[in-house]
Specification:
With 80 residues, the chain is an all-alpha fold. It contains four helices and no strands. It has helices at 5-11, 15-28, 33-36, 41-79. It is rod-shaped and about 60 Å long.
């Protein structure tokens, strides 16, 4: 038996940020997590899929930037 859903979310350092990006996407499209429950199932599912893709892309973008900054920092240490 795996961890409880709350335990998994708490162990993932990006989980809160991912939820924030999903919330951002939904709000940009005139919805909230609660308002999605009022949508037809297929529409809610498509909206959540799009929100998840958006969140994943934003997380990847942030991670790429963090690696880039780390590389610049390492390069400046080596040249000093």
């Amino acid at each position: 038996m795996g961890p409880a859903p709350d335990e998994y979310v708490q162990s993932d350092p990006d989980a809160a940020l991912e939820r924030a990006f999903i919330t951002e996407y939904l709000e940009l499209h005139g919805h909230t997590i609660l308002s999605m429950h009022q949508l037809p199932a297929a529409e809610a599912s498509a909206l959540m899929k799009a929100a998840s893709i958006y969140a994943s892309a934003r997380l990847s973008e942030m991670q790429s930037r963090a690696h880039y900054i780390h590389d610049i920092h390492d390069a400046s240490k080596r040249s000093a």
